[in-house]
């Protein structure tokens, strides 16, 4: 694999066998560095001296530590938790990625803890069998954990069934990967759920003492207060006071000299907990299994509505990543936003074309301004570029685009004109000033 200037890129050639069709396929894996924003780069695949170039640097073994230039991560064989070391800051985070399963007496509207709960947070199949793989593009750890949990709540839904009475296994396969030149730890989780009336979460102790946490929201990064540590309190309806909040791409806990960001793909519920040592834990909800919608959440109904498919039995896959960083979280937030959209590869033959080998549809030079949409305009006459400021100050933004256009104006969210336009700087560059936390929408009129 080579870049457009001919330099060879480190890559892995992976031979895969389909047991159903008995056919063999080859997968090519490489790290595409410095891709343009909202753009593309061109890479070349050319034949080496042999039919398949061997990966002399690749291996598989039972080791428990993987690393790249930025990070090192180790798995505990007894508990399955992770220790993450950031080589840049010298900071370690321990006991990360602990799966915790508890009962759920709530409904589709809200979680409710049983009056008597049974918490399961240790797998039964210890010590764990860990498979470590390494190649030119990165390293990975994979292991299987099996948790014995109560099959359901008791009929009165006040408690979980005793383990001795009835339990089912929940199997969790975890793949942890570090990629060359990327300062994050990617985690892929596959859960086989056989239990009812429960909530499965994954915990990340940060060791940080702070009063606020940052959540990626709609056109903003929201700051929320972290509650003080107290014993669980139930109201008259048996509801446990909960501090779960929505998130989009990430949640961040920031200390005096370091921080930890947990990014995700489509896992919207998170809770920031303060433990008895006044340190902050991040708890990410993977799965809520519940079988009804209570009548007090429905107008003019006299009975509960059963929702058996909301028990979420069967196979589920989850993707999230760990991003340790220093006291400036903005680079980590950009890493988290980039994690939302995996790269796509398009294979073509060798031919001449009208496009450059590398290009960006739109990019900005200010890290406090985030592009959120590039789309056709509602009237079909142009291209909309929308972004928003995460800064509490006015920010000057220089935007570069390769969109062929006959003019650009600033419009409202409904794409109606405002009467303002960015300043043309020449060479397809435009300048505008965004007010604190402002959403800015540009409309490029195309030929």
Concise structural overview:
The chain has 447 residues and is mainly beta. It has one helix spanning 330-339, and strands at residues 2-3, 11-18, 23-30, 39-40, 43-44, 59-61, 65-67, 71-75, 82-86, 91-96, 98-103, 130-134, 138-150, 167-179, 185-193, 198-205, 212-217, 220-225, 244-246, 250-254, 259-264, 269-274, 280-289, 292-293, 305-306, 314-325, 359-360, 362-364, 369-376, 382-389, 395-401, 408-411, 417-420, 423-426, 429-434, 439-445.
Strand and helix layout:
Elements: E1 2-3, E2 11-18, E3 23-30, E4 39-40, E5 43-44, E6 59-61, E7 65-67, E8 71-75, E9 82-86, E10 91-96, E11 98-103, E12 130-134, E13 138-150, E14 167-179, E15 185-193, E16 198-205, E17 212-217, E18 220-225, E19 244-246, E20 250-254, E21 259-264, E22 269-274, E23 280-289, E24 292-293, E25 305-306, E26 314-325, H1 330-339, E27 359-360, E28 362-364, E29 369-376, E30 382-389, E31 395-401, E32 408-411, E33 417-420, E34 423-426, E35 429-434, E36 439-445
Antiparallel strand pairs: 1-5, 2-3, 4-27, 6-12, 7-8, 8-9, 9-10, 11-16, 12-13, 13-14, 14-15, 15-26, 16-23, 17-18, 17-20, 19-22, 20-21, 21-26, 22-23, 24-25, 28-31, 29-30, 30-36, 31-35, 32-33, 32-36, 34-35
Distance between the termini: 37 Å
Going by helix content, strand content and strand pairing, the class is mainly beta
Uncertain parts? none
Give the tally of β-strands.
36
The description of the largest β-sheet is: 10 strands, antiparallel
Rounded to an integer, what's the Rg over CA atoms?
A: 25 Å
* Global geometry: globular
Tally of DSSP helical segments = 1
Strand content: over 45%
Kindly report the spatial arrangement of strands forming the biggest sheet. 6-12-13-14-15-26-21-20-17-18
Helix content: under 10%
Mean pLDDT: 90
């Amino acid at each position: 694999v080579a870049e457009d200037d001919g330099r060879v890129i480190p890559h892995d050639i992976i031979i895969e066998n389909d047991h159903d069709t008995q056919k063999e396929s080859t997968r090519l894996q490489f790290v595409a560095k410095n891709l343009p924003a909202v753009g593309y780069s061109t890479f070349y695949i050319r034949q080496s001296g042999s039919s398949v170039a061997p990966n002399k640097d690749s291996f598989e073994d039972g080791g428990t530590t993987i690393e790249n230039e930025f990070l090192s991560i180790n798995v505990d064989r007894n508990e399955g938790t992770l220790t993450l070391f950031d080589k840049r800051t010298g900071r370690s985070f321990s006991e990360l990625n602990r799966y915790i399963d508890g009962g759920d007496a709530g409904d589709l509207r809200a979680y409710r803890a049983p009056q008597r709960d049974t918490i399961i947070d240790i797998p039964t199949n210890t010590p764990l069998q860990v498979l470590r793989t390494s190649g030119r593009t990165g390293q990975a750890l994979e292991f299987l954990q099996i948790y014995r949990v109560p099959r359901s709540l008791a009929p009165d839904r006040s408690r979980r069934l005793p383990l001795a009475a009835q339990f089912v296994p929940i199997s969790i396969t975890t793949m942890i990967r570090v990629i060359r030149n990327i300062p994050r730890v990617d985690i892929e989780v596959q859960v086989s759920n056989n239990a009812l009336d429960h909530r499965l979460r994954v915990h990340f102790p940060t060791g940080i003492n702070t009063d606020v946490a940052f959540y990626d929201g709609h056109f903003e990064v929201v700051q929320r207060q972290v509650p003080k540590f107290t014993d669980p309190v139930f109201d008259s309806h048996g509801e446990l006071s909960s501090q779960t909040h929505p998130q989009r791409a990430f949640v961040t806990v920031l200390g005096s000299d370091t921080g930890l960001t947990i990014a995700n793909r489509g896992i919207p519920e998170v809770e920031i907990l303060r433990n008895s040592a006044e340190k902050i834990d991040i708890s990410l909800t993977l799965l809520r299994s519940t079988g009804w919608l209570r009548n007090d959440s429905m107008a003019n109904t006299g009975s509960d509505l059963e929702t058996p498919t909301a028990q979420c039995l069967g196979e589920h896959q989850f993707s999230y990543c760990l991003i340790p960083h220093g006291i400036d979280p903005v680079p980590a937030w950009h890493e988290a936003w980039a994690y939302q959209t995996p790269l796509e590869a398009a294979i073509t033959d060798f031919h001449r074309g009208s496009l450059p080998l590398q290009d960006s549809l739109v990019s900005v030079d200010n890290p406090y301004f985030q592009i959120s949409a590039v789309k056709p305009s509602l009237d079909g006459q142009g291209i909309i570029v929308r972004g928003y400021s995460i800064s509490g100050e006015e920010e000057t933004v220089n935007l570069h685009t390769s969109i062929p256009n006959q003019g650009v104006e600033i419009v409202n969210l409904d794409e109606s004109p405002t009467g303002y336009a960015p300043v043309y700087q020449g060479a397809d560059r435009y300048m505008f000033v965004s007010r604190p936390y402002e959403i800015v929408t540009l409309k490029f009129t195309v030929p």
